[in-house]
Specification:
mainly beta; RmlC_Cupin_sf; dTDP-4-dehydrorhamnose 3,5-epimerase; 6-stranded mixed beta sheet; dTDP-4-dehydrorhamnose 3,5-epimerase activity; Jelly Rolls; RmlC-like_jellyroll; EC 5.1.3.13
Length: 183
């Protein structure tokens, strides 16, 4: 497994080894021991995953930027198993040196990348192909009372969404009226 560090030290991209031949391919999509070792080597907290989620989105669907407040803050290990998405994590930890900064990464069914987003980050993505299937493991259960969102096109964050790759952006009513980053 190849581990790619990002400009925000707590965010990691995992590239699994894929074994392919004329029959198809095989990969280990998750290995708890290897995941823990990668985090421990960087002195990161080791999470406990409690829930897996799976969504499907059409091209142009933008979900986010979502997060949960303590005591139900969630870390997420995310990946795309079919299609293509631009995935974004925003540092919302007020005591962090990278507060308000974001990292974006393209996740596809072909590149098999996984993006580790610990608690303390808002998360969102835009589907760049129809039928984009997104899987993620979370470190806490969904808790409606703790759920919050930041508007996806917040001018303070200035996220460079690849809008030129979609015909139309589709955002839920709830996400369309989310708070700004400064709120």
């Amino acid at each position: 497994m190849n581990i790619i560090e990002t400009k925000i030290k707590d965010l990691l991209i995992f590239e699994p080894r894929v074994f392919a031949d004329e029959r198809g391919w095989f990969m280990e999509s998750f290995n708890q021991k290897n995941f823990e070792q990668a985090l421990a080597e960087r002195n990161f907290e080791i999470p406990n995953f409690v829930q897996d989620n799976h969504s499907m989105s059409q091209k142009g669907v933008l979900r986010g930027l979502h997060y949960q407040l303590n005591p139900h803050a969630q870390g997420k290990l995310v990946r795309v198993v079919q299609g293509r998405a631009w995935d974004v994590a925003v540092d919302i930890r007020q005591d962090s040196a990278t507060f308000g900064q974001w990292v974006g990464v393209e996740l596809t069914g072909e590149n098999h990348r996984q993006f580790w987003i610990p608690a303390g980050f808002a998360h969102g993505f835009i589907a760049l192909e129809d039928n984009t299937q997104f899987l993620y493991k979370t470190t806490d259960y969904y808790a409606k009372e703790s759920e919050r969102a930041i508007i996806w096109n917040d001018p303070t964050l200035a996220i460079d969404w690849p809008l030129n790759q979609v015909d139309k952006v589709l955002v839920s009513d709830k996400d369309q009226v989310a708070d700004t980053f400064n709120q």
